[in-house]
Amino acid sequence: MSKVTFMSTADFKAAIEAKSIKIVRNPKTDKLFGVSDNGIKLKCQQDIDMTQDISVLIEDNVLADACIVNVSETGEVIGSL
């Protein structure tokens, strides 16, 4: 079972020793991804809203698999198992 946690962007940048992370759109695929100033590529929520709160989702404490996401206290529940 996976353990999902969230990290602030400031804490995540410190953890990967980066000063900045840019959100970039691939012109060929139109997909978003993150890239840090030290060359680390990150997954990114495809409909991310840069005007809303942003955090980094970490699964099983693996920083290499991190994903930049919007965080909402009122997320839409789409199903239950």
Descriptive notes:
By secondary structure, the protein is mainly beta. It has one domain (4-70). The chain has one helix and six strands. It has a six-stranded mixed beta sheet. The mean pLDDT is 91.
Blueprint of the fold:
Blueprint (H helix, E strand, L loop, with lengths): L3 E5 H7 L5 E5 L6 E5 L4 E4 L9 E6 L7 E4 L11
Note the main attributes of this structure.
81 residues, mainly beta, six-stranded mixed beta sheet, 9% helix, globular
Helix count?
Answer: 1
Helical percentage: under 10%
The structural domain count equals 1
The proportion of strand residues reads 35-45%
User: End-to-end distance, in Å?
Assistant: 14 Å
Given helix and strand content, the structural type is mainly beta
Number of strands: 6
Q: Low-confidence segments, ≥5 residues, pLDDT <50?
A: none
Mean pLDDT: 91
The strand order across the widest sheet is 1-5-6-4-3-2
Radius of gyration: 13 Å
Helix and strand run: EHEEEEE
Shape estimate: globular
Largest sheet: 6 strands, mixed
Concise summary:
With 81 residues, the chain is mostly beta strands.
